């Protein structure tokens, strides 16, 4: 066993994108038949490294050995030939093809489809039996759930006879129960002698399933340890390079009047699917209500309805005033006039216009403001001056109002959005995924700003898929599952396990 | 309107639908692979010019066809270069190709033949001659079926028969072969194709090349079969009608044939009756001319079923982490 | 990250693209046995060497400013309006109806109403595709192409069946009354003692086109509406978040775009032909695409590009007169400009990125 060659060995891999060094002299050995975790912050270079291994990028320097053989991987085809399979964070499936067609695509036998599909159907049955991976081969991808889609991705790799399986953040879209099922499948694969690389930023998963773990920080591999010989605290420190405050300093909330009052809120989408089912909730002045849940359980719809840009039925009151939920007055502009600010979940698609300069983004949504206008024309210099002041107060780097939003880091982009929305002195702040793709330093700053706004007596509705963030920031926690609120808890009287059950749809009484 | 007139109009429909169908299938391959092509018109035009010129100079219509296809493929390659390799705007590239063909055909033809941008008229072996199907003359007098066989089905050039055989051929390639599966996949989600180890660039260039060949045949048909030589702007918007037919058919091969036949019928009627007198009112010829465009707008508006284009259409593929 | 600095993005890339188009045009000219330098000399001489040349150059440039601005405004909203040709055709119909139906006392009032008529008809012709895009999601590129053909047929029908004077064989309207004759540059400049060729079509519309450039600049870069148009064009999802109505922006941007294209008719129909003929636009609507792409959709860029294409059109006409290079050479050059500035811009940008990266690398060290 000890003399066995590693399934994968990387030696001195480096990769730069222009001036950014994404991977610096990385070496790693992954032994066959193990689950090897790779953990690190956003932008630490995990995905770049795996993309090199899967032939998406060519490394500037370094060597790759597969089972002791020096290998070059110029494209995905070479990676597949070397027995590597990859399950991407965003699935690479053709949505209107069947499961079978997706599995066969690129791995056909001969020019005609019929024999290929027949053979794949047979192989699929065997694989299903062997690994407990159930999917209907004739189902259309867009009609099956994300969990099933992920199983298709795994089957795709196995069908190509992959011995090494790389999974990039596989649990991001799964409920805790689905994640457990995935881990059982991975365990089964390990028993069959497959090698698995699991990329994640969740410490819990690393501790639960991996045999070995490597930590990446700022493009470098800082440590590789046996999972059984480490602790979450040690890993967190290795990831960040210093001791991490996992808890936010805050005093107990002093809730005041009800600011947001939601009754029987419902959303039905174009396909006729109910996305929100009778939501009731209240947020008071001076408190943070955290909405926990696995992505895709209605949180985005809730934010969009409250933010004014998704049609719904039911009642939403802000400061006692009824908000229109359809037609005229149901838009972001009217909501802002009613004292609602909104930091959206996806700042690159919604919160910012990536090609606009920082100053234009600061005016964005508030461009009708009298302070930004002089008669019929916009007062661009006034906006620029305001942007400079905001950038200083929120420590945006570089403090250059003329720079396009896309040229700032994730954390600084988020600070621009936050500065724009918070400094409007709203009665209610809607904030979604405040620290997604944000570096640790900025996370602390953003958390402080949110708590400070609460302490000024504002109502805050926080949506996050990061349970830790929800637990450390919220004064109350509501859990969403399948468009419903499964229950409300006080952070001090609950734990991740109980919330996890609620997130999986197990109702409060049973939990 | 007697039976023979109907037969004649339908016969003319087949002739006029042929270039539309060829260009429509050309667009079909390109757009199913995710490359929008509003340059069908230009590719047909340049092929018409080169096929007529080379057929005239060599006296061989087949060499003309080859030259036409080659010139069309050259423009297709330019479109591929812009939209696949350099990830440029496919619409702009298509517009440029239409202009390039409109200008180059006249510049080259004028330099070559000094006839004001025309080619000399083609005779004999420089044109595609009608093929008389077996027993056509023998059965011509059989009532009803005789004229249908002898007048309607017989007597077209080889390109017409090839074109209509291309419809089941295309269907088979797209739905029954590995290439078809990959082609459809690359038009829907190129990332899926790429991560499955198949070259997105290769597939898309292949599709664009097929599009070039088919447009080339369409152009050659115009100049060497339907008419006897090239004249300036002789495609007269057929590339756009083909595009309209493709949308009308919702990017499917059999419906593409029917919509091209429908649009061909409209052209045939407009050609025969300048203003169509329906008794109650008179349909002006302009209305017949624009009917394909109006029908396409109605289809696009989603009033008669929704036309959903290939999802990755028009979007250059960039590898993502 | 932006690798190429902004100044290079707006100057270096268009200039290199233009040079490439010029080089390929020169190759074509050499291939047909002419001397490209001599051709250039004839073109410059023909377009700028006399007030006659200037008159035609500016006449064409006026058309292209209108259609270039039309494409640019829609493009800022990320709407690809290929329908400028049809909108300009319909604008011609609007201008012709205004000029023919009312006995105008003076050209100034006639011009004012002709502008309204041309813009309204052009806007109307853009409104249907715009509405279908905004409400039904119908791809505006295809619908505007279709509307070009439909517009041509409408014009054809109107001229042949309705507007053609009795007994005339020519599918064209009657001549407009003398009172609606627009002052030409000759008329305008004469009082200032400037002698300008009498026989060129350049007219007062030029100044309206220049004013349109300034107004469009103000609209796009200095007003709230322009801000919203650009925001919607850059990110529809962000616009939705901010409460900017996509339907409203799509409609407004296309109405302005179609209106500008329709306005062109005061130049070619009212100013030059003084009657409405078949195909009065002669492709100027399509050329607006090239003008806007070259001018990077900025009104000043559109102005420069319009002058450049005015030069190409007038110079190209002279070329056909003095050499064996046919007039269609202009279309080839136009195609190459669109290709290099619009579709192959990455071919220029990618090597530039490498150069700027290398330069930056040195600075860091």
TrEMBL record, chain A:
Keywords: ATP-binding, Cell membrane, Membrane, Nucleotide-binding, Repeat, Sugar transport, Translocase, Transport. It is found in: Cell membrane. GO terms for cellular component: plasma membrane. It is a peripheral membrane protein. GO terms for molecular function: ATP binding; ATP hydrolysis activity. It holds the Pfam family ABC_tran. Residues 8-243, 260-507 form the ABC transporter domain. It comes from the Bacteria. Its main location: membrane. PROSITE patterns: ABC_TRANSPORTER_1, ABC_TRANSPORTER_2. Belongs to the ABC transporter superfamily. This is ABC transporter ATP-binding protein.
From TrEMBL, chain B:
One of its GO terms (cellular component) is plasma membrane. It is found in: Cell membrane. The chain crosses the membrane at residues 12-30, 42-59, 91-113, 153-174, 205-224, 256-273, 285-304. Pfam families: BPD_transp_2. GO terms for molecular function: transmembrane transporter activity. InterPro entries: ABC_transp_permease. Coiled coil: none annotated. CDD domains: TM_PBP1_transp_TpRbsC_like (cd06580). It comes from the Bacteria. Keywords: Cell membrane, Membrane, Transmembrane, Transmembrane helix. It is a multi-pass membrane protein. Its main location: membrane. This is ABC transporter permease. It comes from Aliishimia ponticola. The lineage of its organism: Bacteria, Pseudomonadati, Pseudomonadota, Alphaproteobacteria, Rhodobacterales.
Automatic annotation (TrEMBL), chain C:
The keyword Transmembrane applies. One of its GO terms (cellular component) is plasma membrane. One of its GO terms (molecular function) is transmembrane transporter activity. The chain crosses the membrane at residues 12-33, 53-75, 87-104, 110-128, 140-160, 202-220, 241-266, 286-313, 325-344. It is found in: Cell membrane. It comes from the Bacteria. Keywords: Cell membrane, Membrane, Transmembrane, Transmembrane helix. It is a multi-pass membrane protein. Its main location: membrane. This is ABC transporter permease.
